[in-house]
Design a protein that fits this description.
Elements: E1 2-7, H1 10-20, E2 24-28, E3 31-38, E4 41-47, H2 52-65, E5 70-79, E6 89-97, E7 119-120, H3 123-136, E8 140-147, H4 155-165, E9 169-171, H5 174-184, E10 188-196, H6 202-228
Parallel strand pairs: 1-4, 1-5, 5-10, 6-8, 8-9
Antiparallel strand pairs: 2-3, 3-4, 5-9, 6-7, 6-10
Helix pairs in contact: 1-6, 2-5, 3-6
The structure holds adenine.
Amino acid sequence: MIIGIIGAMVEEITPLLERLKHYESKNIGGNTYYEVKIGGHTIYIAYSKIGKVHAALTCSTMILHFQCEKIIFSGVAGGLSPDLHIGDLILGSKLCQYDVDITAFGHPLGFIPESRVFIESDETLNAIAHRVAQNQHINLKEGIIASGDLFIADSGKKQWIIQHFGASAVEMEGAAVAVVCDLLKVPFCILRSISDSADGKADVNFDEFLESSAKRSADFVMMMIDQILEKK
Ligand code: ADE
């Protein structure tokens, strides 16, 4: 099997590379793809750089160039739901682009013609995540993740996203991965650990917790990989 793991920032994939150690690297389109062989399987790991456009390029390259059959996103997010705290893990049940607005033409917020407001992640990958969480006694939440090309650090903007999309967490790449995987028919899941609460303290909290939360997400993804490759 060939699996792709994407992070947005180098901090989000460093814990994976530190664990896997032996890899080759290939450069395409300004990104480095780390190739790891495990048994007869191959894992590609890359950080895309921040934002939906970069994530879409990395995800497309993983699928169309490296033939990845499953995509897992690992990284950090801003918590919107009051029951999400720094370090908590959330799986995106469905993804949306809160910064898409062609309401001037009568479309709903977040809607692009010939697409959908919400794109569901893969049930099988999500079930694997829940099994890992249960086995490890980890509290894994699941909810809508909203993506946009903005770092949310404002309670008003945060409330607006909750109100219009019912989202539990906000980040800047998940929906791009969802759109690409949905169109190319590749199963995907989006895992995030909370680094901040997308409020007035988000910038300070993000800087403080990026590394630890990114590691929490990456460690969880490694356990998912073990399950998927049935190495247990
Ligand atoms: N990723 C982590 N925290 C975030 C925030 N507050 N807004 C957007 N993306 C994030």
